[in-house]
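Below is one record:
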Amino acid sequence: MIRSELVQKLAAENSGLSVKDVEHIVDVFFDEISARLANGGRVELRGFGAFSTRARSARTGRNPRTGTAVDVDAKRVPYFKPGKEMRERLNM
């Protein structure tokens, strides 16, 4: 499912809201999750899972085209850990 499909589904299930309103709600939702992660925080949605970041240290990688060594800087990457209810639904 992509963002536009999510917006359409939510708009269909909530006839009192326009597609523009639902789109704004979805944008705010994802923006808040992104902002919290950017500040080093964690976002937990009960029954769904938790979003956090993990640190990756600097390393030497390889350019797949040429095979030459490339330095890769340290960075933080997003991480998702599914909740118990999500894991149970996936493994029914």
Observations:
- Helices lie at 3-13, 19-38, 84-90.
